[in-house]
């Protein structure tokens, strides 16, 4: 599938989802957002699908290549704020895809963790995520400042849930919280999703 067809298909899927789940209305105080909920979520998901090296790189691409499809694309800082504002919608849509693909019909899932840097670990000061992101170690990237992300994945590669903590958070502690949240009927951390029909093991 070419990129334009994929982007159009993705937008239609997300717009249908937003309408059917009541996410169409802008609940933020003040002026209406420059991007609708459907547009903001589409760009957020597309940015991850195409595996851009950074948010800055994706925004440069969107500003140059996707402007005809999203003429009201705001500046980068506003766009980042919109993505954070639509976080719950992004999570809900992601979990709905898991249900549509019936990905839980598998014998097991695996847990995988990764470090996500948010700024240069050698920079002075606390940064704009003080109290949330901090210094951690990753076998892939070494010492970094950012978040520790945990994902549950099926044998076919479908991500069925995820959670994150500060970079210094221990693997076992993060996994314990992940498992505990999955057991709750109405989890305060919906991004963790629900387990496979059989067992869930770590790696």
Describe this structure in words.
- Helix content is 39%, strand content 20%.
- With 203 residues, it is an alpha+beta fold.
- It has 2 domains: 96 residues, no CATH class; 100 residues, no CATH class.
- Strands 1, 2, 3, 4 and 5 form a 5-stranded mixed sheet that branches.
- Helix 1 packs across helix 2.
- The mean pLDDT is 86.
> Which percent range fits the helix content?
25-40%
Approximately how much beta-strand content do the residues carry? 15-25%
Poorly predicted regions are: none
* Distance N to C terminus: 33 Å
Structural class: alpha+beta
Task: Estimate the global geometry from the Cα principal axes.
Answer: globular
Order of helices and strands: HHHHHEEEEHE
In total, the number of domains comes to 2
Radius of gyration: 18 Å
Number of helices: 6
Total beta strands: 5
> Main sheet?
5 strands, mixed
Can you give the mean pLDDT?
86
Provide a brief overview of the structure:
With 203 residues, this protein is of the alpha+beta class.
Task: Identify the notable features of this structure and list them briefly.
5-stranded mixed sheet; 6 helices; 203 residues; alpha+beta; 39% helix; 2 domains
């Amino acid at each position: 599938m070419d990129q334009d067809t994929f982007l159009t298909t993705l937008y239609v899927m997300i717009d249908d989802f937003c309408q059917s789940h009541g996410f169409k209305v802008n609940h933020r105080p003040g002026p209406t957002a420059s991007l609708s909920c459907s547009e903001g979520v589409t760009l957020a998901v597309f940015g991850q699908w195409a595996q851009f090296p950074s948010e800055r790189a994706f925004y440069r691409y969107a500003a140059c290549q996707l402007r005809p499809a999203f003429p009201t694309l705001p500046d980068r800082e506003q766009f980042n704020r919109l993505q954070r504002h639509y976080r719950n919608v992004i999570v809900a849509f992601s979990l709905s895809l898991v249900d549509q693909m019936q990905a839980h019909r598998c014998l097991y899932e695996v847990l995988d963790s990764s470090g996500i840097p948010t700024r240069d670990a050698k920079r002075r000061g606390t940064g704009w995520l003080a109290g949330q992101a901090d210094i951690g170690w990753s076998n892939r990237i070494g010492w970094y400042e950012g978040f520790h992300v945990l994902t549950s994945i099926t044998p076919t590669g479908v991500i069925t849930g995820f959670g994150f903590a500060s970079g210094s958070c221990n693997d076992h502690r993060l996994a314990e919280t992940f498992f505990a949240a999955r057991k709750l009927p109405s989890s305060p951390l919906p991004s963790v999703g629900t387990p496979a029909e059989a067992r869930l093991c770590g790696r």
